[in-house]
Queue: 2 jobs
Job 1
Amino acid sequence: MKRAKDWMPGLLLTAPSLIALAVFVYGFIGWNFRISLTDWKALSPDFNFIGLKNYRDLLIDERFKIDIKNSLVFTIVFMIACLLLGLLLAILLDQKMKFEGLFRSVYLLPMAISFIVTGVVWRWLMNPATDDRISGLNLLFTKVGLDGLVNQWHLTPNWGMAGIALPAVWQMAGYTMALFLAGIRSIPEELREAARVDGASEFRIYRHVILPQLRPIALSAVVILGHISLKVFDLIIAIAGKQLALDVPAIYMWQTSFDAYNFGKGATLATYILFSVAIVIIPYLIFTMRQERRS
Amino acid sequence: MKSRKSKLFGAIAIAASIALTATGCSSDEGSNASGQVEVFSWWTGGGEEAGLNALVEVFKSEYPDVEFVNAAVAGGAGTNARAVLATRLQAGEAPDSFQGHAGAELMDYITAGQLEDLSFLYDEEGWRDVMPATLLPLITVDGKIYSVPVNIHRANVMWANPKVLADNGIAMPGSWDEFFAAADKLKAAGIIPLALGEQWTQLHLFETVLLGVLGTDAYNGLWDGSTGWDSAEVKGALDTFKKVLTYTNSDAASLSWQDASKLVIDGKAAFNIMGDWAEGYFRVDNSLVEQEGYTWAPAPGTAGTFQFLSDSFTLPVGAKNRDAAIAWLKVAGSAAGQDAFNVKKGSIPARNDSDKAIYPPYLQSAMDDWGSNKIAGSLTHGVTASNAWKAEIDTALGLFLQNKDVAKFQAALATAATNAGK
């Protein structure tokens, strides 16, 4: 048993943030869950308990099905594109090139911009108008003779969410690159030299020496990108406003709560979003905690 | 040593910031007692802000001792403002007066007991005599009136480019069938027949099609339950709406209402359906002259009907400066206040005794129509349906825009009406 003198100051100093965390994070998660079990449908609170009815209703809700599909399309396109592009950029920057610092900053810079700003700019770039009103990227494509690339972007039927994912990839690929680059740099140079001595080509060195060691980094990247994509809201609002073709659970939650004042259903949607993010985050937390304990 | 010092410093900083926020709260409450009126709206730009400022000038000249506090929250049609307002009302931090669309949109506040009955103001100020007899029943709930309308906009207006019409030998369509005939010609000539914008403008188009096909009485019946949403007439309207959509621009979802109007101005589209705030956009923002740069008519099938929406101000229960708020409402309902506001905002006054001569020609004709036409309320702009009902219709419309399935759309609309208790 340690003496109080040893642990007391530490506990006292962290107590304010622990209490704040307990109230403002876990307390509100609990409060939100409680509201999701009510049929509160007006401006004034109404805690009429209806069990899991809101959850059951959502399962057969047509709009919610579209939301889940949109969320999945966005997440898959966004994550795969970010990981591949990030890895590619990291490997290119690893070639001991000139001005590496400059390029690193250039690729990383979009991350410093808010999704709203990105959204507004890309709304112009991804202008879907055709013929004599053509503009943005489509205009650029026709000017350089790549007419085949002209497309409807985020208004493409069924695959509009992939268009929304483009600006998100532009913004986060540099960050993924930074993660991978840090990972590559932490691999001891001796390993590569040993592989070279054994006669491995540069490609095989990356394939069999570097990539396998980047697995923990890739996992971190998946978790960070995954929770961003499952919660995406501002980017879509900035590019497309509120329209059902590009609806995601977060927008549905906003409209249900604040346009229709159906707080019970809104809280249910919020719980769903929390749950979907938890599916990604919790295994990762368990994994890293085990790893830390081991080392 | 160093680390302990920085920890101590951090603790002091936290304590200090907590103390600061605490005192911040208490000083706020103290200062509100003196003559102030905090008015909440979503008028933050263009003619709307100019109108509000003009109204504030009238207020200041009549009540020089009261300080006006503008608590406007930006965001089209109040979508952001309403969320902020809901939070403030729930926290018991009501503004002294807030803007809302007159009609069913205010029902949520009324049933929550958050608004005061303003009938006494109507009696004191004689507003029952000067506000149109067609308007008062639409804003009366159980014999009580909870808001003061400051303006009237018309929703069922079809705008057109006169040059495009002349070049293609077509007139303003009086019915949707005439529109389809004209639209086929335009399509063949490579012109977009009907310019359309993002989803709320599509809801706006939808309500004018409903009104045009069903007629005024059946349309009004949709909202009190006397017209069934599952009826054959409504199906006819939905079929027409589906056909109308085939004559619109493919990039509608990426355009604002101004972008859609601009297509008409530039001659790339012939028609556009939008509320009469578009008139200010044509005349003021683009310096066009009526009949040369733009022309208008009631939306197809709606001649003789004025589909309206109205901005109004309210008195929340528990307003901190109730007397000042009542003073504000008196100015908002006065002839001087309404004229100052509406000339700038580009809408017509809710009162029928204002000075017609100071308004531009379009608004003068709108005033005539407002006085003589049948009246119907706008769905998109909060007159006919509660927020929850409107949100359900909006979702049903969004799904329809995806699958273009009329039967499903109609079923969803009928369900929405049932959920709303009609």
Job 2
Amino acid sequence: MGKPFVKLFWTPNAYYCFDVNHNEMLQIERESFYYLQNSLAGKSGTSKEPEEVQQLKEAGYLAEESVVKEIKHPITDYLEDYLGRRMLKLTLQVTQDCNFRCKYCIYSEERNDKQRTHSKKHMNWVTAKKAVDFLWEHSIDSSSVDIGFYGGEPLLELELIRQVVEYSEKLFAGKKLTFSMTTNGTLLTEEMIPYLKEHGIKLMISLDGPKEINDQNRVFQGGGGTFDAVMGKLKMVRRVDSEYAHELQISMVMNPENDFDCINEVYIKEEQLEELFVSAAIVDMEYDDKQAGSSEEYTWKYQYQRFLALLSYMGRIDKKKISPIMVAPVIADMERRLETAQGSRLYAVDAPSGPCIPGQLRLFCTVDGTLLPCERVSETSKTCYIGSLEKGLDLERVSEFLNVSRITAEDCKQCWSFRYCTLCGKKADGGNGRLEAERKRKFCSEVHSYAASKMMLSLLFQEIPVYYGKQAAVIEGGEG
Amino acid sequence: MKKKAILYPFCEEVLPAVRVFDGLQDCYEISGLVAPSGFGCVGMDAGYSCNHPEIGREVLGELPSEEDWDTLLLFEPRQQTEELYLEKYLEEAVSRRKEVVFLCTEENGIPEKIKKTVVACPKQVRVKACLSLPEEEGWQPQVHEPEIPVVLVGGLLQEADCGAVFTALAERFHRDGKRVAAFSGHPVGGLFGFYSLEHIWRNSELTEDDKVRKINLYINGMAEKSGAEIILLEAPTALMKYDDKALNGFGIQSYMLCQAAPPDYLIGCVPFDLADARMVSALSEDFSCRFGCGLCAVHVSNILLDFADSQQKQKIETLRANMKFVREKIEKEKESSEIPMFDVIGEGIEGLYERINGYA
């Protein structure tokens, strides 16, 4: 037997073979596991083929080649309709200015040459109106749309935001319309709160942890930490309208060089943050060609908290005792673990999962009307340009971005985590005006490790009722 | 002389009714279609709402000038939407001394404001519900299969032009002089003399058995009363579960309907990306077991499921693709498909109608 297109897994209880073409996890005998392991290592001739392996082959499993012959995203042919009729979100960069100068900020003057830097540029009403009209013209089939306000610091342009809200509410009358804003929160005033609530503008407020960690990086333009100012504003919102305050979300950028427990501490100590949804991300250094390093303490404490969050998901620990930073990722992981069982097999014409439809899910419009797939890509790189308000969307560029895996087609066809890939065009953007295969390949090991962890989680939950029945019974009885 | 009517709110689901409007009733002629701005079709041809060919009627954002119309036809769309501004248009029409007709499937569930205005202005505002038998007229311990042919139109997705095929067939039968008892769940159906089963579906006091019996009794009763030669049914929901995310009510209501009135002709409305000869054949076999009737013909729709968004929102989210994909698909599959495929939207109802007439 040659090398089968499979990935092997084992747990303390059983052996498994993930058949990539079928996208199925098969529980196998120990003997088969070692035989397949040898086959993968090119040593298949050393032992006799187990009967189970023969049976699996007869049933169509364990093929040696990927069934994928061509990389093409399934909606490639329908891009014009998706983008012409089903746009879902528009994010407006209302200003490039900010009253903060966060040290890790991707727009920082000291950081990189592949992203714009802070400037006084702001969006004018003509551009904003044109952008909202653009969303209207491209969303007839969308049952709801969202308009996001982004910066810099969007609250520096409150008047423009008010104009956009008023105009959009009239234009989208009869359709579900929501607003969101990513802000540092320091420019919020008491007078703004009833307005924000009335128009359902959801705020995502940035905060990186307790004062000593937050203030290391998140500083005002003129210097000085921002923690006290942000917490003061959160307190104010709670005082003015506790119901609205409850809806606030916290966006957290974590530096893994810090101690995870220290980062987490802020959610335990600060009552202003109690029960708020936290969205955490690791500091983005991709455009610096660097990866954030992580301390040993951060890693094991993060894993421990993840373990606790899983126990909480299973009802063993009170949710209140779990780090809010872990709640969202664990819920997402638990939901996605089902995808492992439900995802479709591979087809002759197929594409790795990963990219969203550029421009459909979160079209980003810069101050001057340039259109980008989302707010996370480089504004100066030509690779990410997908059009402008003036010229409309460039479907060829969108298609290229959507089908980013074509640049690594041969690798992708042979990749066991084809269905679990998370890479989009941004990961292949080196700022040289084209999608780069070598750059994209750098992220593959990260994807493999994520996919493997997801599959192990899926196996764990499959095994619980089989191998840990007694413990599960304790859970159900509530004695845990 | 026909009254000039404005239809509000114009949306995708009412486009089929607009297409056959003149062929199925004599009271009104459409003078204008008005939609809330957020529906995204104001200023466009009405066909754009489904990415269908133009029908030569532009959608308006406001009621037109006073002399252009006599009646405002109001209804609540079946698909959930945000604020519809029904009251605003009701008040505007009343203040302009126009007639207002509120179209609905049954008189229960009419918005309070409409009810009050009907009471306050009985000569000006009225309710037009789909036809129904009085409740006390019957009960039976068992179902009786209808004695006239039953045609059922259903889809893999309800949005796959089921309403368009249904109304086009109703109009075609009517044009041919055939008496049809047509059952649809759309509020505008009352205008065309369609019957509705909504009062039975929504009755939470009935068991599933009772509902099947009631539907059977009601369909037979209406067919007999109207002297119908054909029963035409629109499946209340999609024919089956689409996938694990788009559940489609598991096709349970369609199954119940087929127990009440077993179809002789099943017309399946299928999204173009699924309209492969082998797929259609497999579906037909499945429906033979499920509903007791395989597919007589397929209408290929330009509807496309937005899989990612449906997964995200845990409900069916669709878009309308360019009609060229429908044409290309039919061209590619028609030779190999045992079950004939039609594009009722692009090519009209004639081909499908002939198929039904020639179907043994």
